[in-house]
Amino acid sequence: MAGPMADEMPEPPGDQALGPGQAPRGEGQVPVIAARGVTKHFGSVQALRGVDLDIYAGEVVGLVGDNGAGKSTLVNILSGGLQPNSGTIFVDGQRVSFSSSLEARRLGIETVYQDLSLAPDLSVWANIFLGREQTVKGPLRLVGWLDRKAMAASAEADLERTRIKIGSVGSPAGRLSGGQRQAIAVGRAVAWGSRVLLMDEPTAALGVEQQERVGELVSSVASQGVPVLLISHNLPQIHRLCDRVVVLFRGQVVANLRPAECHVDDIVSWITGAALGARRSA
Ligand SMILES: Nc1ncnc2c1ncn2[C@@H]1O[C@H](COP(=O)(O)OP(=O)(O)O)[C@@H](O)[C@H]1O
Ligand SMILES: [Mg+2]
Predict the structure, then answer these.
(1) What is the set of domains in the chain, with CATH numbers?
(2) 167 C-alpha to ligand 2 centroid (Å)
């Protein structure tokens, strides 16, 4: 057989050499999104050092690590906001190179940023459609006449699937609580039939009850087949929600844990580096 072409995703190593960011591969399964050997530096700061990551359909993958470990940098590279210094991103096994987050979004990579970036003065439905406005059919399309009615109705249906009460989809997003903003961001992801949902600390600013709501949204998105990469410091929630937890330590993936097989404390010791030290001195 011919060797792999340059644009093909390198085979993940066999289980023996399982890289810490990689899942054991289901037979014939191609990751929805994957990173290979991704590095990124900011001046002399080495934020990422050769990161490999695979995310498969329907998975909820936790991405954890201490402040400065490189989590946001990795998400920003996966979502097109930053370009890596080296390494490659693959979407459905195809090599991609994003020059903007819009490009990533066009490929179905939906990202919820920590600041919940919504336009506060726009209505709920307008936020859902931001950047993807629908124009009416017929001659008015030529002047970009927006089909507000269709968008509002469709936004309402999307939000219903997230099971969070927003009130009127016509009210400005600025009046919404953190939990409701989350629902919109997640609603967007569901609405666009996204390939993958990346969430960078979506619960950081939320109360306990709202954090639980976000958890439910994550599970419901994943149950529709859309994998979720969830960054959070809420480790009990990460442990409960995730199929797999990837730990970043100083820009490197050091562990790939299955919550079913470990305790929250194990995750903590990988985050702090204690587990790493223990393994090195073993
Ligand atoms: N735009 C930037 N300019 C300079 N340094 C940055 C920038 N973004 C991140 N860093 C640095 O890269 C490292 C990783 O940061 P980050 O990815 O934000 O970590 P995390 O999200 O895990 O807290 C940190 O040392 C941080 O200070
Ligand atoms: Mg961060």
Answers:
(1) 30-118+194-281 (3.40.50.300), 120-175 (no CATH)
(2) 31
